[in-house]
Amino acid sequence: MDGRAAPAQSEGDVNHSDRRAAWAGRHVGPASRALVERDAAAFLPQSLSSPCLSAIRRAEGIWIEDMDGRRFMDFHGNSAHHIGYAHPRLRAALHAQLDDLSFAPRRFACEPAAELAERLAGLSPTGPGSRVLFAPSGSDAIEMALKIARLATGRFKTLSFWDAFHGAGFGASSVGGEALFRSHGIGPLLPGAEHVAPFACQRCPYGFPSPGAAPDLDACRMACARMLRYALEKEGDIAAVVAEPVRAVPYLPPPGFWAAVRQACDETGALLIFDEIPTGLGKTGALFTHERVGAVPDMVVLGKALGGAMLPVAAVIARAGLEVGGDRAIGHYTHEKNPLLARAGLTTLDIIAEEGLAGRAADLGRHALQRLEEIAARHPGVAGVRGAGLLLGMEMEEPDRAEAVLYAALERGLSFKVTMGRVLTLSPPLIIARDDLDRALDILDGCLGTRTR
């Protein structure tokens, strides 16, 4: 595991330095503190990663352990640990691949890379004839998808959602909607990156109240989808809509939303790109998140968990008909066809399939969601709960309460992230035992019932 990744933070979180410092002062031991200080002296400071909260010496299964021996159930994992940390089967496969073939220059085909591309194309709902490109990060893969969309449509504009995160590169930050990656003196981003308000029925940006867990579609008439269509029609020359089919907050789309967007894209000539970097590969209860939202994209982007929480690898899967860059270099990465990275992806896919992890996520997710609803009913200040598979969220009415619960949970050995300032986002590995899942939910229940500092 990347020892620099603070378990208390994530994309879009605010660094609440006072409470963070107070927690570290009480709970970070001397060995962890020494490494955190070395890290801070060596790395350029930046929000969300340096300086760090603590230091990691071991990661295995659902657990991370700091330099002083404190253990945490990791319900964060930067969305990379679907198969858990240090999966023995993946470790063995990578050792064997190192002995067999450790690198391949781009101009030479290698068997693992070709097999992974074939596997992903065959699994993808984008259909027969789909093609694949690999990249070393999800942000890079998003930018490759943008290039393909420009070449295929002859247009350069994009339409995406405010509050979305699609990566930290300039192109990915441009289509993303988080201020942390778009401002603070960075300067102009890509031209033509247009945005609309996202779907978020529990906190509808168009002002329509949502009774309980279900949106009132009779009242709102799906204003979010209608506004997206309006923007597509008014702009008239959008190359692609770029979006998460289920937002990693998590926020779930209202019924019929993506079918309406798919139709609007078809009628205006825009491509639909689904970013499943944090949510794909079984996390939401299906191998591909968009399998259950009623729309098939033109391209889907995967990353994070594809490398099995060991190696960085991401992929763009494009439907037939988008072979438009044969005379250009769309990605051209040094490790584009690295056999070691490809072996990580192949073995991760094998583990997800053979251990039934997508179905397991669906089953455990239903159990966890029911428990979260019961927990929420016992505690004031909870605005709602929601989830898809093992991507779960509990939204607090007050951001300060969310942060306080986070640090209280860390004290008791549970790490998760707070998203958008108020959503306790729980994203455990898909291998988690039901008893461990219940134990984590018990910790959360106890933290909600305790006066926290």
Automatic annotation (TrEMBL):
GO-annotated molecular function: transaminase activity
CDD domains: OAT_like
Keywords: Aminotransferase, Pyridoxal phosphate, Transferase
NCBIfam families named among the record's database cross-references: PRK06082.1
PANTHER family per UniProt: AMINOTRANSFERASE (PTHR43094), AMINOTRANSFERASE CLASS-III (PTHR43094:SF1)
Family the entry assigns: Belongs to the class-III pyridoxal-phosphate-dependent aminotransferase family.
Protein name: Aspartate aminotransferase family protein
Species assigned in the record: Azospirillum oleiclasticum
Taxonomy of the source species: Bacteria, Pseudomonadati, Pseudomonadota, Alphaproteobacteria, Rhodospirillales
